[in-house]
Amino acid sequence: MKKKNTVLTILTILWLGLIFGHSMMPGEVSSEESGFFVDLVMKLFPSFENAESVGHFVRKAAHFTEFMILGGLLSLRVRDEFGRFIGRFLTASAIGLFAAFIDETIQLFVEGRAGAVADMWVDLAGVVAGCLIIAGITAFRFKKE
Hints:
This protein is mostly helical. It is about 80% helix and about 0% strand.
């Protein structure tokens, strides 16, 4: 169990590094990265005419997805520390919210970026979704056994 916790801790720290690394990218670099996915969505769905709206959606979806994965990792990691679902859920969510706060604070100091409270809500929703996915998988496995 200790080895599993060590691996989960390392994966969580590495994932946080990836999240914070994205936030440290200047606005121009971040826009280019998002632009690739905007172009892809526009090609897949030609009926979408407003690239700016698609770009906004792509950026929010990226935030949500990054933090959903973080929520899943945190949920798995704290599972062994707290026995009940509520304790694990609240702990993982609190850590995830703190990570979102740091993430948005980093962006305040990066050229062409801005921290936004609204993005913290998107990030927290991602964390909660990740926690709930792990809870669902765990419940399904427990019920199957």
